[in-house]
Design brief:
transmembrane helix; ATPase P; single chain; elongated; Calcium-transporting ATPase, cytoplasmic transduction domain A; 4 domains; six-stranded antiparallel beta sheet
Length: about 750
């Protein structure tokens, strides 16, 4: 148990024990020992209470603890020992609750420091020797093994480097650095071993700067004023004025003491922390760890939300978005062959390719003669074919258009070569989280006025994500120091959300830091006040709902308690309530406001949409169907790109039509007849699905148009006069379906229990 925890236990025992023992003595007719025990309890509580007041004065603030001190002193002066003991118990209980609710966990940087490289592998006399990283000087030649952290800043030598830079920039996709390129410490070698020429010492390097920034930001974070002390600005002078007025008017000190007893701010010391503790308990049950009452309270009145992009608004890992091939190659077959080779590689992009193949239900044969070349990719033999995955080994006219498209989309390219000829490319991107748009809308509904996105990624990639999500401001290509400055420049109470090591300093600098802890860096979780332990951004909106409700209940409870205390103060000032009775009356007020505060344990609706189990099951079912249908949709554009009057093109078109009629349209009709009515009930009316129903009608119209063209085609192929309209039909279907799927996933599927917490 910590010293603070032991102190709370001692204070509670040192007040409650004598109160109970004194009551037993009084029941046995032993008035003297009872008074002595109660006086002892009063004195026992008076010492720490005076210390709390002095500590507050040193911080230039005057809190509600002063009323408690005066009430304790007054009880002793007028020999109202029972009243003093009761106040002592209430004070001890309130302080224990407040310390538990508001004590912010120490933001140590253990995880950040543990990741700091402690040694380097330096070439000495032709051999590689392990040396302390502090011994590395500029000009040393170092070996960086696969999977290790780059120890110091330097330039790549001999072999290309493939680095995971997410710890510094937040960029999810690994970055390739050719020989001579500068690399930074703290990045992870995601490829094969390479040589590094040091250009800085460990202390001068990038990663050491990140650690320093986190420490500085932590040290400069301003303390959060207790909710009770904010109320005390008005309540404290009013209580003293009433007590002083009662004494002057009556000439009886006991009336002043009685006023102070009923004015003892236990509704503030008890009710507000109780509501905050209840809110913390509520969030903890659903995968959101709040490290203290101050964090939950600050989140409850945050007005600006600052978000990192990679891993927060996006999934944080590369995902296959498309497979583009030449006119002679089937995209599914190309992906199958590429994944067969990549399943033997530990490369980040290879894992994404294999994952995409499994999601599409492709069976992967075991390759042979597999070799991996740093900077070039992997090659092997699959089903008798030579397959190379990585760099393109030949050029063709269709490839320039794909490169332009990848550049515009901010996608990475993995080229696939079959038997010496580049036949296709796998495009990968860090996709926006499905629940991100709804989460941001919910946060705005909850009171967030401004949303800012900070990222170390390129400006064009950041702008494309920001456009989809509708954020208010974007700052791209930010270093950790620039993120800290951006957070500190925000005028309103701010909440910063991130998941990478590079976000740690900004999380510490914000009024409240929130870490995506499920797959994020441990350092960001250590620097944050709140950690979301599941990989769902929607939990942030849920936590905001709980924080605002808990804070609202805390204010209501404290306000109601103070109002009742004011009525009791008036009675005490008139001599109607003696100190001991006032203490008991105050206990009744405390019980009432605490019961009200505990309402925060129950979940309110907040900004979420409640769903019944049947609707949730439908959303999950049709969401799974989307995942199955998405890959074949890309074939629409591929067929349109290669459409001609040949028999082969006609057969590919018929395959597309069979998929649309036999698989896609039944899915759309099932949504229309089963899913949309259920969603309409949940969202409050059919108007919420009308636009989507119009999308279904347009999809059906285009599919019928495609079928009409097939009916007009001759067996030898399409007529030339059909080609332009067919291309428009295919491109239109692709665009409508892509948008329609995205809208359904954002508006409806994000409601399911997989994305909804409370």
């Amino acid at each position: 148990m910590t010293g603070a925890g032991a102190g709370r236990v001692a204070l509670a025992a040192g007040t409650a024990g004598p109160l109970a023992a004194g009551g037993l003595c009084r029941a046995l007719g032993l008035a003297g020992p009872a008074d002595a025990l109660w006086a002892g309890a009063t004195l026992f509580a008076l010492v720490p209470a005076v210390w709390w007041v002095l500590a507050a004065l040193r911080q230039r603030r005057l809190g509600v603890d002063l009323i408690a001190v005066l009430a304790l002193l007054g009880s002793l002066l007028v020999r109202e020992y029972l009243a003093g003991a009761l106040i002592a118990v209430m004070l001890a209980t309130g302080r224990s609750l407040e310390d538990y609710a508001s004590g912010r966990a120490r933001r140590d940087l253990r995880a950040l420091l543990e990741r700091t490289p402690h040694e380097a592998r330096r070439y000495e006399d032709g051999a590689v020797r392990r040396v302390p990283v502090e011994d590395v000087v500029r000009g040393d030649r170092l070996l960086v093994p696969a999977g290790s952290v780059v120890p110091v800043d330097g330039v790549v030598e001999r072999e290309a480097a493939f680095l995971d830079e997410s710890a510094l920039t937040g960029e999810a996709l690994p970055v390739e650095h050719d020989v001579g390129a500068a690399v930074r410490s703290g990045t992870l070698n995601a490829g094969d071993p390479f040589d590094l020429r040091a250009t800085a010492t460990a202390e001068e390097s990038t990663y050491a700067g990140v650690v320093r920034l986190a420490r500085e930001a932590q040290a400069e974070s301003a303390p959060v004023v207790r909710l009770a002390d904010r109320f005390a600005v008005l309540f404290l002078p009013l209580s003293l004025a009433v007590a002083g007025g009662a004494w002057l008017a009556s000439g009886q000190l006991v009336r002043a003491v009685a006023v102070l007893v009923v004015a003892t701010p236990c509704p503030l010391l008890l009710a507000a922390p109780a509501a905050i503790v209840a809110g913390i308990s509520r969030t903890a049950r659903h995968g959101v760890v709040v490290k203290g009452g101050a964090a939950l309270e600050t989140l409850g009145h945050a007005r600006t939300l600052i978000l990192d992009k990679t891993g927060t608004l996006t999934t944080g890992r590369p995902e296959v978005t498309d497979v583009v091939t030449d006119a002679e190659t089937d995209p599914a077959e190309l992906l199958r062959l590429a994944a067969a080779v990549d399943q033997m590689s530990a490369h980040t992009l290879a894992e994404a390719v294999v994952r995409a193949a499994h999601e599409r239900g492709l069976s992967l044969p075991r390759p042979c003669e597999v070799r991996e070349t740093p900077g070039r990719g992997a090659r092997g033999r699959v089903d008798g074919r030579r397959v190379t995955v990585g760099k393109a080994v030949s050029e063709a006219a269709w490839m320039s258009g794909v490169r332009a498209r990848a550049a515009l989309d901010g996608a990475m390219t993995v080229w696939v070569t079959l038997d010496g000829r580049t036949r296709g490319v796998v495009l990968l991107r860090d996709a926006v989280r499905a629940d991100a748009p709804r989460t941001l809308r919910r946060l705005r509904s909850a009171g967030i006025r401004r949303i800012v996105m900070l990222t170390g990624d390129r400006a064009d990639v950041a702008e494309s994500v920001a456009t989809v999500l509708g954020v208010d401001q974007v700052q791209a290509e930010c270093s950790p120091a620039e993120k800290v400055r951006a957070v500190r420049d925000e005028p309103d109470v701010s909440a910063m959300v991130g998941d990478g090591i590079n976000d740690g300093p900004a999380l510490a600098a914000a009024d409240v830091g929130v870490a995506m802890g499920a797959r994020g860096a441990a350092a960001s979780s250590q620097a944050a006040d709140i950690v979301i332990t599941t990989d769902r951004l929607g939990r942030l909106a849920d936590a905001m709902d709980v924080a605002r409700r808990a804070r609202r209940i805390a204010v209501q409870s404290a306000g109601a308690g103070m109002l009742l205390s004011l009525v009791a103060m008036a009675g005490a000032a008139l001599g109607l309530i003696p100190p001991a009775a006032g203490a008991l009356l105050q206990e009744g007020i405390d019980a009432a406001v605490i019961l009200n505060a505990l309402r925060a344990l129950r979940g309110g609706r907040g900004t979420r949409v409640p769903l019944d189990l049947a609707t949730d099951a439908l959303l999950r079912r049709f969401g799974r169907e989307h995942a199955f249908l998405r890959p074949p949709l890309e074939n629409l554009r591929t067929v349109a790109d290669t459409l001609s009057a040949t028999p082969e093109a006609l057969e590919r078109l018929r395959d597309v039509h069979r998929f649309l009629v036999g698989t896609l349209l039944p899915h759309e009709r099932g949504e229309e007849t089963r899913l949309y009515p259920a969603v309409a009930r949940a969202l409050g009316g059919t108007e919420t699905t009308t636009t989507m129903s119009r999308g279904h009608a347009e999809i059906e119209r285009l599919v019928r148009r495609l079928g009409h063209h097939l009916g007009l085609a001759a067996e030898g192929g399409l007529r030339p006069d059909q080609l332009d309209d067919l291309k428009a039909c295919l491109y239109g279907l692709h665009a409508v379906l892509t948008l329609h799927f995205a809208q359904e996933e954002e508006a409806y599927f994000s409601l399911s229990s997989g994305a909804q917490a409370f």
